[in-house]
Amino acid sequence: MHQNKRNKKRVIALLMALALASSLAVGCGKKDEAAPAPGAETPAAPTGDASEVLVAYKGGKVTRAEFDKFVGINMVFYPQYEQFKTDAAFQQDIMNQLIVFRIMGARANDTVKAEADKRATEQMEQIKMYLGMQEGGMDKVLKDANVTEQDLHEFVKGSMMAMIQAESEVTEDKVKAAYDNNLKQDADMYTVATVRHVLVGTTDAATGQASRTKEEALARAKEVQQKLTGGGDFDALAKEYSDDPGSKDSGGKYENAEVSQWVPEFKKAAIELPIGKISDPVETSFGYHVMKVESRSTKSYDEVKEGLRSEAAQNVIYDFLEKELPGLIESNKLPKPEPAAPAPATEAPKTEEKK
Fold it and tell me: Does domain 191-298 have CATH number 3.10.50.40?
């Protein structure tokens, strides 16, 4: 069951990577944590007639030629998955992705289709630009994958249509309820702040070795605090003292950042410090921070609702994969994934008999 859930989440991740278009690092993304292990010995789908039906589902079917083309298109976007092409679980995931495209696309109305077409056209311009920078250019990439530019466009459009259709099934009430529920669980879920800090660390970030004792770090942090409260320049002091490589050269500043991403102690100070006040040293697992909050606000519902709608759309697709799709499959000739091996039994530790 847990393996099935991980597989379904991977299908959603494949869909979201294009549909949300949050970043176009095509072919450069990290391998999904749920992907099968390299070198798996599961046999590839059996070779045969390109017109052979691999999967039949209520209302449609997928031939070997259609499946192979769809796999090829996935490889254009995710070349790191080439090593998993023969893995049975991966093949089932790709097949599920294809069926999601088709079924949710068939449910789409004209408005959803028009929006998907618009987004796909915009996305394709970025994709062509990226693929054009690859070795041999876009033509070589597509030729190696045995797909055409039109195949690519239809793939992107199908991904967009599936996600937009899922989003269209999410009501405004559900989105607002998610916003309210998130705030109920964490009142600072949507708090953003512009914070400057100087980190005096106890560990060298490059080597992981101890760089100074806690007492030495605290004394140095207090020195920074004294200089800042005395009117010292934050930019100069951050550059001189800070051990945070991500901010020391920009005056120690993190601008309009979500406080929820920070470690608890830093988050608490970012929420509670009076605006413009130099803090006492704040201890975290990184060392001691001397902080100043320059601004703080809460994102409104309107500012975050589209992100919440997209999250809810993932649940729509997950529910489809979990509850509806299995009942729609009429036949499936793809290799079956090996069942997960049960965890080895462990013996309870023996206790010495009292005499």
Answer: yes
The upper half-sphere exposure of residue 43, i.e. CA atoms within 13 Å in the direction of its Cβ, equals: 7
Question: Which residues contact residue 56 at a Cβ distance below 8 angstroms, ignoring those fewer than 6 apart?
Answer: 62, 329, 330, 331
Q: By the 8 A CB rule, do 63 and 54 touch? A: yes
Model confidence, pTM: 0.64
Listed by start position, the domains of the chain span 2-174+306-332, 191-298
**Strand ranges across the sheet with 282-284:** 253-258, 191-201, 287-298, 282-284
Nearest to 90 by CA among 338, 344, 351: 338
CB atoms within 10 A of CB 288: 25
Would you state the pLDDT for residue 80? 85
Contacts of 26-34 with CB under 8 Å at 24 or more apart are 26/76, 26/77, 26/127, 26/130, 26/131, 27/76, 27/77, 27/78, 27/79, 27/80, 27/130, 27/134, 29/78, 29/80, 31/80, 31/81, 34/6, 34/7, 34/9, 34/10
Asked whether the beta carbons of 13 and 32 are under 8 A apart, the reply is yes
pLDDT (tens digit per residue) in 255-309: 999 999 999 999 999 999 999 999 999 999 999 999 999 999 999 999 999 999 9
Task: Tell me which residue of 313, 316, 19 sits closest to 156, measured CA to CA.
Answer: 19
User: Both tokens of residue 128?
Assistant: 């062509």
**149 neighbors 143 (Cβ within 8 angstroms):** no
DSSP class of residue 54 equals E
Q: Which stretches of the chain are assigned E, i.e. beta strand?
A: 53-57, 60-63, 191-201, 253-258, 282-284, 287-298, 329-332
Residue whose structure tokens are 């630009």: 129
Longest dimension (CA), the chain: 82
Q: Tell me if residue 189 falls in helix, strand or coil.
A: coil
DSSP class of residue 323 equals I
